Amino acid sequence: MNTISHQLEDTVEQESKLKPKLPKNYKVILLNDDYTPMEFVVDVIQKVFRKTHDEATKIMLQIHTEGIGICGIYPLEIAETKMNQVLNLSKESQHPLQCIIEKI
Ligand code: TYC
After folding, report:
1. Is the four-CA dihedral 13, 19, 20, 21 of positive or negative sign?
2. Which atom of ligand 1 is nearest to the CA of 35?
3. Label partner for 45 (CA 20 to 30 A): which of 13, 24, 83, 101?
4. Nearest-angstrom CA–CA distance, 103 and 99
C-alpha cells in the first residue's frame, strides 16, 4: 500500500476512534393482522407506550388501514424492551399481534 493510502487509513481510524457517536434511535412498529381484536391493540399501546385512549385508538386505526404504525421512537435498549413487552402481552393472550423495531 502507498503512503497516501496509509495516511488515509490512519485518518479514518483516528476519526472512528475519536468521534463521539450519537446513540441511534429506533422506531417501534406494530403490524396489522386479521385476528387481534382492536380493543386489545388499543390497550397494549396505552400500557406499553403510555398513550391516552384517544392517541392509542388513532395509532391502532392507522395500523388497521395502512398495515403498519409507529408507536414510538427510542434508543435501542428501550425500543427492544417495549417490543418484547408487546410480544409477551400478545403471546399471553394468544393473539398474533407482531411488533418490530427499525433503525432511523
Ligand atoms: N385488523 C385487526 C382487526 O380488524 C385490528 C388490528 C389493528 C390488529 C392493529 C393488529 O396492529 C394491529 N381486528
Report:
1. negative
2. 13
3. 24
4. 14
Tens of pLDDT along 35-92? 999 999 999 999 999 999 999 999 999 999 999 999 999 999 999 999 999 999 999 9
So what CATH class is 21-103? alpha beta
Decide whether any atom of ligand 1 lies within 6 Å of the 60 Cβ: yes
pLDDT, average across residues 12-18: 56
Q: How far is the CA of 73 from the centre of ligand 1 (A)?
A: 21
User: Does the CA dihedral 82-83-88-89 come out positive or negative?
Assistant: positive
Q: Quote the CA–CA distance of 23 and 86 in Å, as a whole number.
A: 23
Question: Is there an atom of ligand 1 within 6 Å of 32 CB?
Answer: yes
